[in-house]
Amino acid sequence: MSELIERGVGSSPLVEDAAWFILQPSLTDGDSPILGRPTWTIENSRLLPALVTGENSDMGDRGFLDKLEDQLRGQSDDLIAFTAEPAVRARASACEYQVDDED
What we know:
Elements: H1 13-29, H2 42-52, H3 64-72, H4 77-96
């Protein structure tokens, strides 16, 4: 993995650190841990919100993942991986590192 890139500290450094840990590899290395190629593109970052908000929002009583599956049906593997990567990285991080609850 590449070195961490210096960044500003927001109003919640712990949240920023966690987010950066999860997102940094895709943002700096560029390759998806799922597909092994870049998925964090401008196209995907614009398409995903368009698929799940506005006219495409699903306000029904089904679960989030059921709704998301319907909204992503027929989309490219790159967009589906882009959508899943933060959760995949968070899960891997939780398995790899133990959280210290002593704070």
